[in-house]
Amino acid sequence: MFEKIMVPVDLAHVGKIEKALGTAAMLARQDGASVTYVAVGSAAPSALAHSPAEFAEKLGDFAKAQADAHGITAEAHAVTSHDPSIDLDDTLLHAAKDIGADCIVVASHIPNLADHLWPSHGGSLARRSDASVFVVR
Amino acid sequence: MTDVSDDTGVPAPEGESAIIETDYDIGQDNIEGSLGPFGFDIHNPVFAISGLSVVVFVFYALALPEQAAAIFGELRPWITNTFDWFFLSAANIFVIFCLALIVLPVGKVRLGGQEATPDYSYLGWFAMLFAAGMGIGLMFFGVLEPAYYFGTPWGDEPLGTVRPFDEDGNLIAANVAEARRMALAATSFHWALHPWAIYAVVALALALFSYNKGLPLSIRSAFYPILGERVWGWWGHMIDIVAVFATLFGLATSLGLGASQANAGLEFVYGVPNNVSVQVLLITGITAVALVSVLRGLDGGVKVLSEINMGLAMLLLLFVLFTAGAAAIMLEFGKGIGAYVREVVPLSNPFGREDDGFRQGWTSFYWAWWISWSPFVGMFIARVSRGRTVREFVTCVLVIPSLVCIFWMSVFGGAAINDMVGNPAESAVMANVITEYNDSIALFAMLDGLPLAGITSTLGIILVIVFFVTSSDSGSLVIDTITAGGKVDAPVPQRVFWCIFEGAVAIALLIGGGLTSLQAMVLSTGLPFTIVLLIMCFTIYKGLKAEPH
Q1: What domains are there in chain B, each with its CATH number?
Q2: What is the reported pTM?
Q3: What is the number of CB-based contacts under 8 A between chain A and chain B?
Q4: Is the complex ipTM more than 0.85?
Q5: What is the CATH number of the domain that holds A92?
Q6: Beta-strand (E) ranges in B36-83?
Q7: Given a cut of 80, is residue A117 above it in pLDDT?
Q8: Is there a contact between B28 and B236 (Cβ–Cβ < 8 Å)?
Q9: Contact A62 B14 (CB under 8 A)
Q10: Chain A residue closest to B5 (CA)?
Q11: Are the beta carbons of B1 and A65 separated by less than 8 Å?
């Protein structure tokens, strides 16, 4: 059904997206699809990495670990944003186009009051992406 | 499952750079959580102490307005008058330091690692430099300052130069050329190399220690070479808290005073009533637009608005240039540069001068002002300057903006002085700058003497308001980054909080009084920050020497 599955990853909160990671791996095994883990970082140093290059390297390690753990084909796609707090959704949508994803598996929280002001990233991707979007709560 | 968040690892930056190895993880002191439905990620204790101390000072200014006015109203002139030699000497050191970086071999170091590429094009970069650095100031002082120096009867002429008017206000033709030359030189002196060198030092320190050394994007990081790991403790907290404090109060008081000025402009141009209600509406409107800009982010908000404003400012500049006589003003620009080059050394000399009124009342005041703004502007410039070499960075932050400022001042100041000389008795500039000192009207008074005054004045008001919006937005971004411990991906509601907080402080002080006294307090932070900046020059050089170049 799907050939290329994209999974947005927040490397600082990997524990919170385990369900989405498992779902993506399950879909990938079932369809023989490859998974691309996409993470958005900034040019400024963060807790995860001192530079964009180091950030990309860490995402690569993460993708490799996922591939080994789930027995799937996985790639990493790191993107640097000028203002990740705000531009995350647009950056992810661009990334989905760039890598040619036909399915996005994204973790999201249970909707609350704040979602009326700031739609969740999952909600925003589902509304705007051409690809199928699987929102995992 | 690989939890890479626990592993900071050995960094592999973009090309070679000398990362500083520290045990500190960015965000390790942060508190993450949620307040109702809104998430937050704030530095403990910088966020709480900065926020609370702002509230305490606002309450103090509101509860005991006379005492606050007396204390801060005397503190500021005491500082700028007593330490004028210190401000002037320090600013000279910053200029020499920056010019040296252009020619020294360390100028080859690239911010972000040897293979980093610039984040922004020259156009977007310059637009943001100006919008954050001095957009509003150029609008208000472009006419006011040259006109003031030209006509001042209060004994604060730059370097005690000749006066072009006698006691009765009659023109002394023989003195006009010299007074005009000195007025333009002195104005350019306050808006060219020195202020931009102050900004460049802070911006370079932050960019270097963050992008090349891997430390958090926060003021304290520049002190790592001196304080070592202690920079993550109370020394660092204090530096960051004072930076947030100065930035927030600087922005809030400017917003409050700016609203009064914009209101005065609206009254002059359209007859809009000049009262607190209109000013509160203006602040609310500016904050609302700034919120939209905050929610659109750095690229979709500040950058777009800065570019629009640069285009509008260019239009206004060209209009004044051509209607006030392009050939004469281009000649003025040439003379302005000549005068600046000739007078910059005597004007910046800290010792053995007799023009106390000018040196202490204007220059020392300006230096304290630029320095108290430098954490904000420097941090913002650093945020958008990754990927440039130090040489390119200093040239673009120092030399090019200086030329643009001298040009702007020559055009607006030249047109204003023409207005004063043409017919002193009926000159609107003369009436609003010298006869009565209406600082907020000066620009509109000059435009009034040119064709299409209605359109250009409206353009002027739009420019002022949009510059306030970009300041409010970029200020929120800077305060949020510092109070999030250098994290640039903190939850958006935090940035929204700071933007609203700043508007609320401005409104409270506008209604209750205290804008002027708290602005005086902000200017007083210029003194400790001058020491901070001098130390930064040392750490920058040390940091650059360690970089591969």
Answers
A1: 51-546 (1.20.1740)
A2: 0.88
A3: 128
A4: no
A5: 3.40.50.620
A6: 38-43
A7: no
A8: no
A9: no
A10: A12
A11: yes
